[in-house]
Design goal:
The protein contains six helices and 14 strands. It is α+β, with helices and mostly antiparallel strands and 345 residues long.
Length: 345
């Protein structure tokens, strides 16, 4: 009996010893495990395909956003540059056209005065210094070109005062007068389209900031306020609409609401830089080319005739005379803004 008890106690001691060794081994392993560096977060991330896909998609999205923002910014800058270039190009083209138009004069002195006016009025800022230097360095010269005067062959213009009182043109002529600047310098022809409204050529208002002009008609001088004006370049739409401060109690002309027809016979009432009113009716005075807002005609005109009404055989204004096209060109002749393109109703 004592032997069995001794054996049991010996076994218990061995079991306890084994348990202590096991516990010590586990504690040692846990301490060693705690001392080991844990895997970096990015290593865990790289080992996960789903996480990789999410991160890759986020990077792609951010790259697209940054690229799109940069591209949009570049496009906006490019559009600004193109708009500025187009604006500068249009301004320079207009200035060149004005210079070309103003060097067409009957004398060197007239051309020099025209150029000096363009510079002083600030209408040709791009070329102002060069023109001023040229005029100062060449006091006896001017870049004069052949003066055509708007007449092809024999002058077909006749004074309105010679027309019979029964002639419809004599009646229509009562609605046509002269347009002058505020200081009284006569510039162009203009005509009544309503009791207190006149139409003229846009380039006759030389300064886009000028709002007050003078309308000379029937022995009267009436102030005219600029309502609208369009003039970009020679050969394009070119008109001005002005309101009168007083009605001259004269008939006004009716604007045609239709397009001109090729070969259509025309007539024109105008002033050539003087108080003498002229009328033109001839076989050459007809439509020779038609554009969406303008047309070309063969009527004799002349300096000061810009803004003159071009009249159909029905007595309606079919267009506003603007100027002359280059001789020898396929569309040579006078050009006009179509009446149906005017903002007058």
């Amino acid at each position: 009996m004592d032997d069995l008890e001794s054996l049991r106690l010996a076994l218990d001691r061995e079991r306890l010893k084994f348990e202590r060794q096991k516990l010590a081994t586990e504690v040692r392993h846990r301490r060693q495990e705690s001392r080991r560096p844990r895997p970096a977060f990015w290593k865990d991330l790289l080992s996960n395909p789903l996480a990789l896909a999410i991160v890759g998609g986020f990077i792609t999205l951010m790259t697209s956003i940054v690229s799109s923002t940069y591209t949009s910014s570049q496009n906006r800058e490019a559009e600004k540059m193109r708009a500025a270039y187009a604006r500068d190009s249009a301004r320079d083209s207009l200035a060149a056209d004005l210079i070309k138009k103003f060097v067409e004069g009957p004398s060197r002195e007239a051309v020099r005065e025209n150029l000096k006016f363009l510079v002083d009025a600030g209408l040709v800022p791009t070329y102002a210094n060069e023109i001023r230097a040229y005029l100062q360095a060449n006091p006896d010269a001017a870049p004069q070109v052949a003066f055509r005067g708007g007449i092809t062959g024999v002058d077909d213009a006749v004074p309105v005062e010679r027309l019979s009182k029964s002639d419809p043109m004599a009646t229509l002529a009562q609605s046509v007068g002269r347009l002058a600047s505020a200081n009284g310098q006569e510039l162009c022809t203009a005509f009544l389209v309503a009791p207190r409204v006149i139409a003229a050529a846009g380039h006759c208002i030389l300064n886009s900031q000028e709002k007050t002009m003078k309308f000379l008609i029937g022995g009267r001088e009436i102030n005219a306020m600029v309502v609208s004006r369009e003039f970009t370049t020679l050969g394009k739409k070119n008109y001005a609409v002005l309101n009168l401060t007083d009605a001259p109690s004269l008939p006004f002309l009716k604007l045609a609401k239709r397009a001109p027809s090729m070969g259509e016979h025309l007539s024109i009432l105008m002033f050539r830089g003087s108080a003498k009113q002229l009328a033109v009716r001839s076989d050459d005075c007809r439509v020779s080319a038609i554009e969406s807002e303008t047309f070309v005609h063969g009527c004799d005109t002349g300096p000061g005739s810009s803004g003159a009404p071009i009249i159909s055989e029905m007595g309606e204004v079919i267009g506003v005379h603007n100027g002359r096209k280059n001789q020898g060109a396929s569309d040579a002749g006078g050009w006009a803004t179509r009446a149906d393109a005017l903002p007058i109703y």
